[in-house]
Design a protein that fits this description.
Number of helices: 3
Keywords: Coiled coil, Membrane, Transmembrane, Transmembrane helix
Number of strands: 0
Distance between the termini: 100 Å
Transmembrane segments: 25-54
Coiled coil: 55-82
Number of domains: 1
């Protein structure tokens, strides 16, 4: 099913201005509710205030947890980098060691040359 361009543009606008749109809708509901049923207006206003308070508290906790997560990821990356460097050093050191092995005469029997002249 195809979505008309005007409808798609309206949805895009609503996504970009979601906070303002929700605040306007909430104010409209509170106003209408307060005029018709004051208890409904008070209920919606209380829910909005409670939601804002909970959102702010959870945002602080979420920011702290994201900061801790970033720190752990940095430490993990640093450890991985350090291990990689150590592994490269071990490989380099072992290759240097194998190249420096001394030749010990007499440990290997050489084939005797035949002098049949």
């Amino acid at each position: 099913m195809r979505i008309p361009k005007r409808v798609n543009a309206a949805w895009d606008w609503a996504e970009r201005h979601g906070r303002a749109l929700s605040a306007g809708m909430i104010l409209l509901i509170i106003t209408v509710g307060a005029l018709w049923l004051p208890a409904l207006g008070a209920l919606v206003a209380g829910m909005v205030v409670g939601g804002v308070v909970v959102h702010r508290r959870m945002r602080k906790r979420l920011n702290r947890l994201q900061h801790d997560n970033d720190q752990l990821l940095r430490q993990s990356g640093a450890l991985r980098h350090k291990i990689a460097l150590l592994e490269q050093g071990v490989k380099r050191e072992s290759s240097v060691t194998t190249q420096r092995l001394p030749f010990i005469p007499g440990s290997v029997e050489l084939p005797e040359s035949s002098e049949a002249d």
